[in-house]
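Morning F.,

Quick status update on the modeling queue. The single chain you submitted on Monday has been processed. Sequence for confirmation:
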Amino acid sequence: MPLRSNPTARQQRLGAEVRKLRERAGITARAAAAFLGSSPMHQSHVETGRAGISGERIRRLAAHCSCNDTAYVEALVDMASERGKGWWQEYRGGIAPQGRDLAECEHHATRIRTFQVIHVPGLLQTEDHMRAMFNYASPDVTKEDVDTFVAFRLQRQQTIGGSPGKPYEAVIHEAALRMRVGGRRTALRQLEQVLERSERANVTVRVLPFDTEEFAGNAYSMLYLHGPVPQLDTVQIDTAHRGEFFNAESHLMQYQRRYERVLATALPPTESRDLITRIARDL
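Structure tokens below.
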């Protein structure tokens, strides 16, 4: 099969996990290739996500590397066995690869948790809120491009809006809820939608209020995507120009601690809804 010229983040992740398997066992890429009956070059392509690998080869390599974590190995086999294109691929040419990678990661996550300081989480935004954000951030963007961005984000929201919806927890700083993005009417409808979504059985919304005395992490915004096993968790962070993905064990532990620290100072769900209601009344 031809090599992938632009592997997705998920394909790159599978390759990285294959590399970790052999490195933990102290096995070189050349030795792994010889064991699997391939070439060192092909093994390199597998580990960078440019070439696929079968589930059976993953099982063989895991056994050769004395990896006894069955759940982890089978999760890798499932990743290797994925076929077909997800809905996000329909947006090639209209949405940047990082955006499509995010949609794919959300689709495969078993649970989604996010903390936002100055933005309402994308999976909770109204269409008018989205349009106001896109037009403000990129005033020269065309209406057609904005329509594409909005349609793509609305499709992403189906991740938590289906039946049954995927478990979703959002911690939102009060600052994000008080910003009047798009004007008073749009801001009010946005707050109403956050309240409506928070009533769903799979959605939990908690607010970090201004008056908490234990928060000093303005740069802590994150999206934490839980995999089928902890080793396959992923963190996504928005930067000025693109979204970045992190999955090294040290990074995952760091962001887990940060999220739990924020969660410990946020209001419980009921009190959070009460505060959102008061903010809406202030409008």
